[in-house]
């Protein structure tokens, strides 16, 4: 009996000096707002952590110590602890956001953007992560991407983001578009002489007369008149989408509203190939990123092409 009592007494200090015991002490110190004691307690707990201890608790301890390091201005130590926590909790959006915010605070915009993307992928309604990603893009002077993320965060109810997308009171107003020059009305056609009306074969036109329509197959030389050709304007396509986005709409909504050249080949139309390509890429990145990749003049889907009789030949989408 005395042997068991002695063994229990010897084991007691070991139990008191363990990961769980120091974890509890660290939490109590934080509750008292005793940062120095808490920092040391978290360090002791992590030093004593074993494979048999809880991995999520280890990640929690690392994240807690990171916050204390950050509070002391020890940002590199905080970054190491957050990275250690992320290696354990790979699906924790808030850890990625915290690490991204820390990197953004120290001017590492590219690294921060990468973390914010992971945070929003894990938690699509993470408004603050979208807002902070917009701030990171601002740091890179990337206004398009920043505006898109601010709009997304604003739509989710993040008020700071809404302030970013409101037009400035001092911003110059866009000038009204100049009125298109009016084309003079065409003169009324004069009636053809009776001799021309009685002609049977090729269209015979008297000097000075105008004929409204030449029947198919009656063109001079017996050949069909070639249809009028127009040229697709990629800049007009891009401009219409940008204008739509500038009015507060998302790129996805603006692209989906774009007039398809295959259906309605007028000025400002966009090829179906580009629209489909944008929709596929917007599923794996921000809408602004997908817009920038697809709707650029060097993209083959926006290559100028002749259109016969106002119709664009549809191309297959890979």
Topology:
Blueprint: H1 2-16, H2 19-31, H3 35-48, H4 55-71, H5 75-88, H6 93-105, H7 109-122, H8 127-139, H9 143-155, H10 159-165, H11 194-197, E1 229-231, H12 234-246, H13 251-256, H14 272-281, H15 287-294, E2 306-308
Antiparallel strand pairs: 1-2
Helix pairs in contact: 2-3, 3-4, 4-5, 5-6, 6-7, 6-8, 7-8, 8-9, 9-10, 14-15
Which short descriptors sum up this protein?
mainly alpha; 318 residues; disordered N terminus; single chain; Serine Threonine Protein Phosphatase 5, Tetratricopeptide repeat; 2 domains; elongated; 55% helix
Instruction: Give the strand order of the largest sheet, numbering strands 1, 2, ... along the chain.
Output: 1-2
CATH architecture of the largest domain: Alpha Horseshoe
Low-pLDDT regions:
3-14, 192-229, 308-318
Radius of gyration: 35 Å
CATH fold naming of the largest domain: Serine Threonine Protein Phosphatase 5, Tetratricopeptide repeat
Mean pLDDT: 78
The total domain count is 2
> Into which percent range does the helicity of residues fall?
40-55%
What is the helix tally?
A: 15
Question: What letter string, H or E per element, gives the SSE order?
Answer: HHHHHHHHHHHEHHHHE
Total strands: the figure is 2
């Amino acid at each position: 009996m005395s042997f068991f009592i002695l063994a229990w007494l010897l084991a007691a200090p070991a139990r008191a000096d363990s990961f769980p015991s120091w974890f509890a002490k660290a939490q109590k110190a934080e509750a008292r707002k005793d940062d120095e004691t808490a920092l040391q307690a978290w360090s002791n707990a992590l030093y004593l952590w074993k494979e048999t201890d809880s991995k999520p608790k280890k990640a929690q301890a690392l994240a807690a110590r990171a916050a204390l390091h950050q509070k002391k201005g020890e940002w590199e130590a905080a970054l190491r602890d957050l990275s250690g926590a992320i290696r354990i909790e790979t699906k924790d959006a808030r850890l990625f956001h915290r690490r991204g915010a820390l990197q953004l605070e120290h001017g590492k915009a590219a690294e921060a953007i990468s973390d914010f993307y992971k945070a929003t992928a894990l938690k699509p309604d993470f408004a603050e992560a979208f807002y902070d990603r917009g701030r990171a893009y601002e740091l890179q002077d990337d206004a398009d991407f920043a505006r898109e993320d601010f709009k997304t965060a604003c739509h989710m109810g993040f008020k700071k983001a809404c302030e970013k997308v409101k037009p400035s009171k001092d911003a110059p107003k866009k000038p009204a578009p100049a009125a298109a020059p009016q084309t003079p009305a065409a003169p009324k056609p004069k009636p053809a002489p009776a001799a021309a009306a009685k002609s049977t074969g090729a269209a015979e036109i008297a000097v000075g007369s105008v004929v409204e329509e030449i029947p198919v197959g009656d063109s001079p030389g017996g050949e069909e008149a070639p249809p009028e050709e127009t040229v697709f304007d990629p800049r007009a396509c891009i401009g219409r989408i940008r204008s739509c986005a500038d009015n507060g709409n998302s790129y996805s909504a603006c692209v989906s509203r774009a007039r398809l050249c295959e259906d309605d080949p007028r000025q400002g139309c966009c090829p179906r190939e580009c629209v489909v390509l944008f929709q596929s890429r917007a599923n794996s990145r921000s809408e602004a990123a997908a817009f920038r990749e697809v709707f650029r003049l060097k993209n083959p889907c926006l290559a100028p092409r002749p259109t016969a009789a106002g119709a664009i030949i549809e191309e297959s989408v890979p």
